[in-house]
Design goal:
With about 220 residues, this protein is mainly α. The chain is about 70% helix and about 0% strand.
Length: about 220
């Protein structure tokens, strides 16, 4: 039971209590830049989650042979290798999406959330806990990406899952939904200020829920 409780705590931290985008406020540059629609958000979310799981697991496995004096450069090197693999896969199978995401795929290397989990958690825990931590942190980050992308796309363009074909090919055309017919769009939602406003509302909603939970449990 203590081991199960530890796993449950890791899951809760990744998805809610220590969500890197809403609590630690890390990795905001790609989060704010690419979330003008759901498709971009899902693509970057999957890539980031894969890197988190792979980097956490790798660092945990090799933590005993990495000297403390050079641990940060080694962590960055491992993360860069994993991101390069992700880039090559995206270029091979999702090239159009890769072009849309642009510089923010290689910039995953410098994502503070990934390096932070490597230093704070993976370097101090077993590989299974580290893999779970990376998965939950990645899913938590991805959920914020998708929610923000949905809000901005819906308000900005009146659609949902626009350009889903970039991720799913021909199957994605069936997911492209026009919610508001003859909608002129709201430019603010698509521009960077809209991203900041949307993220602020999501953070405020989380804080509101946390306060209600804390008040009810008191």
């Amino acid at each position: 039971m203590p081991l199960m409780n530890e796993y449950i705590k890791i899951v809760k931290n990744g998805l809610w209590n220590n969500n890197q985008a809403l609590v630690a406020l890390l990795g905001l540059c790609p989060l704010l830049a690419v979330t003008n629609n759901i498709t971009n958000a899902i693509g970057l979310g999957i890539a980031t989650t894969f890197v988190l799981v792979a980097s956490n697991t790798s660092i945990s496995l090799f933590k005993n042979v990495i000297r403390k004096e050079v641990r940060i450069p080694i962590f960055v090197l491992l993360i860069a290798c994993i991101v390069t693999i992700v880039e090559l896969v995206m270029q091979s199978y999702f090239y159009d999406l890769y072009l849309v995401l642009g510089i923010f795929v290689p910039l995953i290397v410098t994502n503070c959330a990934i390096l932070g989990r490597a230093e704070v958690f993976a370097s101090k825990n077993s590989w299974d806990r580290s893999a779970l931590d990376g998965l939950m942190m990645g899913i938590g980050f991805s959920v914020v990406l998708v929610v923000l992308g949905a809000i901005r796309e819906l308000i900005g363009s009146g659609t949902l899952f626009g350009q889903a074909s970039l991720l799913l090919g021909g199957l994605g055309n069936a997911l492209d939904i026009t919610v508001f017919e003859n909608y002129q769009g709201t430019l603010l939602a698509i521009l960077p200020p809209g991203a900041f406003i949307g993220l602020g509302l999501i953070v405020a909603f989380k804080n509101f829920i946390d306060r209600r939970i804390s008040k009810n449990s008191a």
